[in-house]
Specification:
single chain; 443 residues; alpha+beta; ten-stranded mixed sheet; six-stranded mixed sheet; 17% helix; globular
């Protein structure tokens, strides 16, 4: 017997914190965990001991997230710290990302799957370059919700005028980036004002606390309304006496929904068939949804392998070799025109060449520096890439999963660049012709 598995009614919010150095991201996260009673007693005791060892009278709540020894010694965040907690209203996966410029790549990692980003600003310093960089990354990654948390309000006398000036500057910049709406909250992570409980000293603010906002903000759209996409991760063929002819194609549904009997196309080959069965958690179901890991069975015995993409026949993306995208370069090694790379898209990895770098973004005024020839660490720019094989790609604006890719150094496996297909702050330029190379990379 088969049955339909409905999308889970339990809401889960993935969100990330970002901001410049010493804006108080880890303290905010620690305060959020502590005041929402999401910290175990032994964790709090360990933080109290570590704080006392550093000569501090009160527990340093930032230590709840700064787990690396170098982080605790320097009082900074280096790696992305993931924390899982829940309240009676919602479950959360929180990514606390670093503020230093050299660790911007980690912010890209933390925000890439986030549905909300909290960007912190030190009320004494206002909007700085790293604030603008993180806002630009949040816009490029299409993070649906952006919260501006103006922190350390206790150090500016809780003055509304300071808060209002920062909000005005940031929202104007966010509007230029295409961020439709920003929710601004004045806080003091150190004292707890407007983090979990409303502030008693900022009576001029009547909006939600940070916790109240993340508990009530609407999360992702109906998973059935997206372009359905299933990247094949593994082909299952037990070839046992119990299952002599079983051939299933396993993977996590990146978007949309699939149902038994639906006509589907296998990309990039373009072969068509129908879904004859869907296995989920050891049982047969009629329908499966975004985020579920499933094994799909097909009516016809056709060649499907890891890296292929299963899509509805009526909603198949184009397969292309010339890709134009906006990228954030994350490696110390520069990305240059003519650079030979590996491009990983979903579960498929192919050879590729960077054919052009049309522009690099200037964060101060969002102007485009034309044809820089290279991108260095933390640069945001436009690139054109030619791949060795046809790839089925969506525009990033339509699908964050199948519209994104990474570029990898083929020599040592280093991740070079994170890319978003078709996303740009300027009108896209025409795609240039093919590129050739005499050393085995001639596409």
């Amino acid at each position: 017997m088969t049955r339909t598995m409905e999308p889970s009614t339990t809401t889960l919010l993935r969100f990330a914190t970002a901001g410049s150095v010493d804006d108080g991201k880890s303290t905010l996260v620690g305060r959020l965990l502590h005041d929402s009673k999401s910290v175990l007693a032994d964790q709090l005791e360990a933080v109290e001991r570590a704080s006392a060892g550093r000569g501090q009278d009160a527990p340093d709540l930032a230590l709840l997230t700064d787990g690396l020894r170098a982080e605790r010694e320097q009082g900074i965040t280096i790696d992305v710290a993931y924390r899982y907690f829940a309240t009676p209203r919602r479950r959360f996966i929180l990514a606390d990302t670093p503020g230093h410029v050299q660790y911007t790549r980690n912010m890209v990692t933390g925000a890439s799957t986030a549905e909300l980003t909290v960007i912190l600003v030190d009320a004494r310093n206002g909007v700085v370059e790293q604030t603008r960089r993180h806002a630009a990354i949040a816009a490029l990654l299409r993070v649906p919700q952006v919260v501006l948390a103006v922190n350390k309000m206790d150090l500016v006398g809780y003055r509304e005028t300071v808060f209002a000036a920062i909000v005005t500057e940031f929202t104007a910049y966010a509007a230029e980036l295409g961020i439709p709406e920003v929710t601004a909250i004045p806080i003091s992570a150190l004292t707890g004002d407007n983090v979990v409980e409303p502030s008693a000293v900022m009576d001029w603010y009547s909006g939600p606390t940070v916790l109240e906002y993340v508990e009530t903000v609407p999360v992702s759209r109906d998973p059935t309304h997206r372009h359905a996409r299933l990247p094949v991760q593994y082909v299952i063929r037990p070839q046992t006496a119990e299952h002599p002819d079983y051939r299933g194609y396993a993977g996590q549904i990146a978007a949309g929904s699939f149902h038994v009997g639906e006509p589907v196309t296998i990309l990039p080959s373009g072969r068509t068939t129908r879904i004859s069965g869907i296995d989920l958690l050891g049982r047969r179901v009629d329908t499966a949804w975004t985020g579920q890991s499933v094994t799909v069975l097909l009516e016809d015995d056709i060649d499907v392998s890891r890296g292929d993409l299963i899509v509805p026949t009526t909603d198949a993306p184009a397969t292309i070799q010339d890709i134009e995208a906006t990228v954030c370069h994350v490696a110390d090694q520069a990305l240059t025109v003519g650079h030979r790379v590996l491009l990983k898209h979903g579960t498929r990895t192919v050879k590729a060449i960077v054919t052009d770098i049309p522009s690099r973004l200037t964060l101060d005024d969002l102007s485009l520096h034309p044809h820089p020839g290279r991108l260095v660490a933390n640069d945001i720019g436009r690139v054109r890439i030619r791949t060795a094989e046809q790839l089925p790609v969506d525009a990033y604006a339509d699908s964050r999963r199948t519209g994104s890719f990474i570029l990898i150094d083929p020599g040592d496996g280093t991740t070079l660049t994170a890319g978003m297909v078709g996303e740009s702050f300027a009108a896209p330029e025409p795609v240039r012709g093919t590129a050739a190379d005499d050393d085995g990379w001639d596409f």
